[in-house]
Specification:
Layout: E1 3-8, H1 12-24, E2 27-32, H2 35-44, E3 49-53, H3 61-68, E4 76-80, H4 85-93, E5 98-101, H5 106-118, E6 130-132, E7 135-138, E8 143-146, E9 149-151, H6 155-166, E10 171-173, H7 174-182, H8 192-204, E11 214-217, E12 221-224
Length: about 230
């Protein structure tokens, strides 16, 4: 079954190029060039993932992501032409799963999309669960609960917490998290995993200054405490 993807891009040449490439690689792609219309379609249509440009008429990509994030749990990958760190930080803070700077590298985009969708498509036994204290990760339901209360997670956030929970009690290197979750070599500069950890901590109620669930190991990576 093909994954359905909404490409939100107002540059017709770029949109056509990306659409053709993803279609050739097994995606069903629809294109939208207006931010406000895109927000409505993301919420109401059944897309598996969204690739979203920041600079859009009607509503910019950051605002679109912020508006739809609570109702759409699939991967959202944001494109930015400026390549400025502030855009990347804001994109992740409003719930984007990933970002890429233009010009778009189609093969890198494809690799990231496949990695974000990989676990969404996996079939796991319903009774399987990962228990770390009062934190329970349900892989089959792609659900996280703390003391019985469900915690809303995006696709990327769930992938991270599941990854750390499986390895609870062990230090996991930042570069290993990056390679395993994004499928790309770590360049030593990308902060997307750090920002994702910050978002997950916030949702878990973990004190960012003195975290007790997901601890930072200076110069190495992260540890989920048992």
């Amino acid at each position: 079954m093909q994954n359905r993807l909404l490409l939100v891009e107002d540059d017709p040449h770029l949109a056509a190029m990306v659409c053709d490439f993803l279609h050739e690689n097994g995606f069903e792609v629809e294109i939208e060039n207006d931010g406000e219309l895109a927000a409505k379609r993301i919420v109401h249509d059944r897309f598996d993932a969204v690739v979203l440009d920041i600079g859009l008429p009607g509503m910019n990509g950051i605002d679109v992501c912020r508006e739809v994030r609570r109702q759409f749990n699939g991967p959202i990958l944001i494109l930015t032409a400026r390549g400025e760190e502030i855009d990347e930080v804001v994109a992740l803070e409003v719930g984007a799963d990933d970002f890429m700077s233009k010009p778009v590298r189609p093969r890198a985009l494809l690799a990231r999309l496949k990695n974000h969708l990989r676990k969404s498509d996996s079939q796991m036994l319903e009774e399987d669960q990962i228990v770390v204290g009062d934190l329970i990760v349900h892989p089959a339901k792609r659900q996280v609960t703390i003391a019985g209360t469900t915690v809303d997670m995006t696709t990327a956030e769930f992938d991270l917490i599941e990854y750390l929970a499986i390895r609870a009690g062990s230090v996991v290197a930042r570069k290993d998290i990056y390679v395993d979750l994004l499928g790309l070599p770590y360049d030593g500069l990308d902060r997307s995993i750090d920002l994702r950890v910050s978002r997950v901590r916030r949702k878990l109620g973990d004190d960012p200054n003195q975290p007790t669930r997901i601890k930072s190991v200076r110069g190495v990576g992260y540890l989920m405490a048992k």
